[in-house]
Amino acid sequence: TSQNFASAELFVRLVKDTLSSVHFDASLAGLYFSIEPKANGIELLISGNRRPVSLLLGLIWKGLKKPRMDATSFEIFRKEQMVKFQNQVYGAPHKRVRAIAAQLLHTPFYTSKQMLKALNNTKLADVQSFYQNIFLKSKIIGFATGNLLPSEIRDIISDLNSTFTATLKPTGAPIESASVVVTKLKPGSDLVYLENLNVTNDVNSCILVTYQIPLLDRAATMKLVLLHSMLDKPFYNQLRTAEQLGYIVQTSLAANSDAGEIQFIIVSEKSPSYLLSRIQYFLNNTTKTRLEKMSDKEFSAFRQALYSSRSLDSSSKTLIWNEILSKKYAFGQKKLDAQVVLSISKANMIEFFNENIISKKRKLSIELLGSKATENQILPGQTVINDPDEFKAAMSSSSFGTVSQEPSQSYSGK
């Protein structure tokens, strides 16, 4: 819940304050550490000189086990966090629209407004209760890499296990780490969410159009990545350079366990409905024609570039850690993907594009209206999302299936 996220933010901030003096001592010993709240728990990162690691872990553990939780410090940090999220509420439109998209399409994810509300209601007793619960029903997942001997790793694990068990005496079943749940849109859906920017004298509006694509296998994932590489520069060149629609024109790509997203963002003085029409024309006409007329040589160049990037060493710490957290443990997947890329043909990409962008699209448009924008026109066939929570609840049990034949409707709070 957003309340738990708020408690986690404040708990970590109190721990950091408790460990402020340890940072200096650690730097003298050639060590760096950070503690951050994440969707799947609290993440501790230590890097640097391997020899004092066990000593540093002991000091950090003391701070985690018994942070200073006085009312004065709590209130200072609570107000500090509220200012941070308040600034985000009135931040850059292209950042705000991404946050709204993430909140609509993923769980757990909370917007700055939701976090502000949660922080406003959070008391010191809530953080204390959160701390006791998470450490009495938690488990440690670790990853060690670099200049460490196997015996040193075993010693660190042994120290952690003995300290954890002796000091906290965990009870009950461990809390499973949270994983991101995707809000699965139905084939043929054309959703729209509107919100005012509420920034005085800001004449710019912002639109984000995202196409959700099922990733049923690795071939679909590679087709999505390849499609994005083929669309990125032409989208900018056409809508920013040629049509000069706005000062921010960009695309982005995201891939989760079973769904991916390709997003198009424009910040402009023009109305979101007009921007949407230009994005749709670029995809439904310009891109479709370009794909069909693309020479084999040009297509092979795109495919080879993706193959080369996937053939590179895939042993980065981030990739390995993500595989551990996702519980997939597919550590060599990147190189296997390189072979999948070579099997993709131009005909495959045309079919992939037509199915996921044209005929069975799963589209969500988010429109942030600036002071210059008049009441935006909802286009025929669009389903309006008025209440994000109700929308997500309605979609929570949906799956990637057939096209819904139900008439368009609005998701509005009751």
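(the above was protein one; protein two follows)
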Amino acid sequence: MGVIGILAIIFLKGLTVVTVDTADVTTVSEYFSQNGLGLSFYSWYGSVRLFYFRVPEDTVLASFGLYAVKKSGSSCRTINITVHFQSGAPPVINPLGTKFASYTPVVPSHNLTIPVSTTMNNTFLNITNPSAGDWFIAAHLPEDDGKIEVEGLSSKCSYVLQPLLMVSRRIVVPVLEAGTAQTHSVSSPNTVAYLKIFIPEYTQELNLTLWNCSVGSSGASMCSLQVSLGSTTVPVNSQAFRNCTGKTVCTTVLKSPPWEKWLRITVASTASDNVTVGFNIGASLSACKLESTSSVLGILKSFAPNSSYFSIATENQGSSSNTWNISRSLSDALQIVGNCFRHQTVLREDLDVLSAKFSIVNGPNVTVAANLPTVLLFNLNSGDDSGGTVIVDLLLNKSSWTNHSALLLACFTYGSPILSLESLKDCSTGLSQGYSLKMNSTKTEDHLRVPFPISGYWYLTMQILCFGNRRSNMHLIWTILAISRKYITRRWN
């Protein structure tokens, strides 16, 4: 049994403990806690208690512990505590069933109900391959019954919730470089291989290929492997899955992967116990060509080998005995496609502590065409924006609308824009679902309200869908306003 070393760091609000088992140096365990807060019966948004955790990079398991305590006498009744979870931004909750404003799509948060009938109740929520970054927990008691109690004549019941986060994090995660193939193996009890690849800006598509799968010493050409791309998010999971069972060559295509981020890759074996499964894996990227492409090419080439063909790099040492039988030139692995979209510069203006306005440089008109999408980037990465509401208003310029049968499609997405018309129709990237807007000759405006957006970069993609093979351009007059709420965004101060 290995020696266990413990490092404890105490912060102003909470405790962080890092535990390393020297017998297994592949993972490290970390513990984070928040101060317990008294809960209130729900009557308005101020009744909610909000907790914040940050999940480290390369975390393979996150376990949220919820410790509910009843600090009162025996006369206090059993009560249910409602706890909401969300990654990336505070959860949008609606305990009173209130109707949201028009044009406000709301995804229900993931929630748990914790009955508190004794002095303490412990509940755990385990999440595998969680998304790194911000995670939020919101908690409250049932709706306030409105009764007025005279102080001193009745016993006051109080309920406290203290959350704890325990994570298991990989110390080393192999980096898969575009244009480089690797050899990996998995065996019981570690039947999952973890890798990651960096997605540069302007990436249009990721192609991931597995081949040369073998089982044990038999070298079987077909074996059971399952591939997942991305990390677990709540309430809507942002992962793509591919079952490679029975395939000698298995390719996964991910359109519009999240830009400027590490993308997690997991390969799991479903073979029987005590069997080693080996496989080769490689990836290629397709990137958009802009007017100034030198920086894009430089980013891509920095993630590629100097060789003009794919090479095999094993976990322990290089090997030339295995070659990718689908070998292609390096330029194919780091393919720079033609112009993918039109880009229009957006200016952010912080009006005050509560609001920020975005405007088009040389606007407010935006030209949208049928042959290429028009993309606008919005920086909601200030750290305060996740506590507000993004308001998008689109207005069609009727005088420039010549094709009355055409349809304007728009999609508001997080992480990366949509760069294909087919994906724009259902407003989805490879890992997430966006917010759709549509306009035509009879519906000349559309609106969108997104409460509590995820902090980061958001993209508005617009393109015209023509019928009858007619090409059209149009002018769009638009306004967008991002509002930040200080009482939410300064939650941890």
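Reviewer note on protein two: The CA atoms of residues 284 and 333 lie 4 Å apart.
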